[in-house]
Design brief:
Length: 526
């Protein structure tokens, strides 16, 4: 039997099971988001920003490519933002597609239904995927595109007809191109995968005209964002450079980074994905797919060297869940006790799911969550440096927004009508500005401006600073350096919010220089 003709189960045997697991994944997120809203958690800080980006559709943004804004705009039009389950329905569906592709990955690797079920269960219960698929962001999209690329490569390696080769290269081109319009970190995945292919006999698949066509598709789909970057003088590079020279992100040591992989995927799943990576690297039966294992060996140290966030590797792991499940059932064979062991292991992962769920999705009210952390002796670690908080940042960033909007609304409408007509709102960051613009859009408030991220590109919107409501952590003396007069008219002090979302609200008059004149100084890419 040649490497290109490995035995494979029929797709129709696995596909219904994969669809069922995908539906289960989507249902989990619908139910848990309903629970989260009932537990008191509101819209997430970044979700409001993405909704605003969706209302300013463009081919790029300072801190992300355009696809998440397109998803946010579609969500805004179809569902609005009042209900968390519908606001986050597209991420849930993306999570379901990820599970489905994991099952198809098992099929491509020569596994059967039991292996597909085990792999999809592992992906479904993993803590990181519970988290990233539970809210609106680009992180839910990455695994979908990466997995489609890897699935295409596995099928190209096994293809027995030119038509199959053509079709799968086109799938890869579209997936990779759209992935680059979702998050630029996919570049590292694509480069590592290309190097891995060049290091194995499967490099032969690159000497094909359809590989060139796939590259052309990638370039074509990524080109709009590239042209946008050129037009605005590469703001994303400026933002990344600013962050890299700051103390914003937690820098993990190599050992801590490895430990984070084990924790974020759910500790019990290490017996699935790690054997999968090893099977791809060393098993004779996996020789045609060796490049998939080598990709991980290249990608992991690269992310450590670049001081990436621990979850930047998350999109690639379903490949190793699939391979691990194939390896498991090659080992169990027809042995009853080995199959029973596989069943017990599946039950262990389900148990881990219920333990990890409150730490991944905020289904418990804040005080119950705090008690739960203490009971199990584990608290999630944040990826950014900040002062101590009651809740982890992923949860804390859902509090304080309605209180902020209510205060600003009261302050603004207490002004005489003549003053309201000339008063604007200046926010310190995109979270505050987006909260006012999204949650306060029906209150008759003026559009909030900011120098943070893409708000800087959107400009001061004609406000000169004649009269402004200003959200800032600066002292009154510091504020009066820029304005003829300022006074504190409110205080942001929600106990569960992040530290930078607490501070005074000022009413300021007579800015000494206009915003247009000082706009470059107000730029805040961070």
């Amino acid at each position: 039997m040649t490497e290109s003709r490995l035995p494979q189960p029929q797709l129709r045997a696995i596909l219904p099971l994969a669809l069922a697991f995908a539906a289960l994944k989507i249902a989990i997120h619908i139910v848990t988001n309903v629970m989260a809203q009932r537990a008191g958690y509101g819209i997430f800080r970044d979700e409001m920003y993405y909704l605003m980006c969706g209302r300013h559709l463009a081919f790029g943004y300072v801190d992300q490519p355009p696809l998440v804004a397109v998803m946010a705009r579609a969500t805004d039009i179809l569902f609005g933002y009042q209900h968390m389950w519908s606001l986050r329905l597209f991420p849930a569906i993306a999570g379901g597609v990820k599970v489905l592709l994991t099952g198809l990955m098992v099929w491509a690797l020569g596994g059967e239904r039991r292996a597909a079920a085990l792999a999809m269960l592992g992906v479904t219960v993993s803590a990181i995927y519970l988290g990233i698929d539970s809210f609106l962001s680009m992180n839910c999209l990455d695994p979908m595109f990466w997995l489609a690329c890897m699935l295409a490569l596995l099928r190209i390696v096994q293809a027995e007809s030119p038509v199959a080769v053509r079709n799968w290269w086109l799938v890869l081109g579209v997936s990779a191109g759209l992935g680059l319009e979702s998050k630029v970190s996919e570049v590292f995945f694509l480069v590592c995968t290309l190097i891995a292919l060049l290091l194995t006999p499967q490099r032969r698949i690159l000497f094909n005209r359809w590989f060139a066509a796939a590259v052309g598709l990638i370039v074509l789909l990524a080109l709009p964002n590239l042209l946008w970057q050129i037009h605005y003088h590469f703001p994303t590079l400026e933002w990344l450079r600013t962050v890299s020279h700051s103390d914003k992100d937690v820098i993990l040591s190599p050992l801590a980074f490895l430990q984070a992989q084990w924790i974020m995927l759910l500790p019990s799943t290490v017996l699935l994905w790690l054997p999968g990576a090893l099977w791809l690297l060393f098993a004779r039966a996996a020789r045609p797919f060796r490049f998939a294992g080598i990709t991980y060996v290249l990608f992991l140290p690269l992310m450590i060297a670049l001081h990436a966030k621990d979850y930047y590797l998350a999109p690639i792991y379903p490949v190793y869940f699939a391979a691990g499940a194939v390896a498991w059932f090659r080992w169990t064979g027809r042995s009853r006790w080995r199959n029973a062991l596989a069943g017990a292991y599946a039950a262990l992962m389900v148990f881990g799911f219920f333990v990890a769920l409150p730490l991944s999705i905020p289904v418990l009210p804040p005080q119950q969550f705090i008690a739960y952390e203490k009971k199990i002796g584990f608290a999630p670690k944040d990826a950014e440096n900040h002062a101590p908080t009651v809740l982890p940042q992923f949860y804390a960033d859902r509090f304080g927004w309605t209180d902020l909007v209510a205060q600003v609304n009261t302050i603004y409408h207490a002004l005489p009508p003549a003053e309201q007509a000339r008063t604007g709102i200046l926010a310190q960051n995109y979270g505050q500005a987006s909260a006012i613009n999204i949650l306060g859009e029906h209150d008759g408030l003026p559009t909030a401006i900011s120098g943070h991220q893409n708000y800087w590109l959107w400009g001061p919107r004609g406000y000169t600073g004649e009269e402004m409501i200003v959200l800032s952590k600066a002292s009154l003396a510091e504020m009066q350096e820029n304005y003829a007069s300022c006074k504190v008219v409110g205080m942001r002090d929600h106990p569960l919010a992040m530290p930078w979302e607490r501070g005074p609200i000022y009413l300021c008059y007579g800015r000494k220089t206009t915003y247009a004149a000082d706009w470059n100084e107000l730029k805040y890419y961070y």
